[in-house]
Amino acid sequence: AAALIAAAIALVVALIATPIYRAETSVSIRPRISDLGSAEAAARLVQNYAVWVDSKAYAARLSEKQRDGLTEAAIVQNVRTRGDSDRMLVIIQSEDSNAARAASTVNSLADLLVAEIAIPERVSDPVRGLEIDVIDRAPVPRSAVWPRIEIALPLAAGLGFGLSSAAIWLVWPMARKRNE
Questions:
Q1: Are 89 and 28 in contact (CB under 8 A)?
Q2: pTM
Q3: Most CB within 10 Å of its CB: which of 107, 151, 158, 163?
């Protein structure tokens, strides 16, 4: 019975809670000619750009339309970036209660990053130039990353069963002593 009550509470909480959606895209920054020096420089750039995209100053570069009602601080709070030096990617991820806005935010940040990096001096040099592009634009997420009913219900049922078993295990010996 306790397991069913716990599962029912988990279901109610999961249905009432505001869903959070996650969208992700990647920007590739790689040297046109792969030699050790240019590869190391590109790897450092990837880390630098990842830190830069995660800043309030960078969020301020988005237009009002691209912000979609979010403040710069809210964008910084929702967005996480990381640099993958091995694959030479800047990975931009956003979590938001609005699925379309999560995708729009990461796509806008990726487009802005490409536009700011891809200046002629960086991309036109046939030897030292960089190839910069968004790999896959983030689609609008179809399912929430939180709350996950398929995880919450079994977890709550197991927790309820465990707590009820522990209660019986603790109370049953005391009840037997009273009856003797």
A1: yes
A2: 0.76
A3: 107
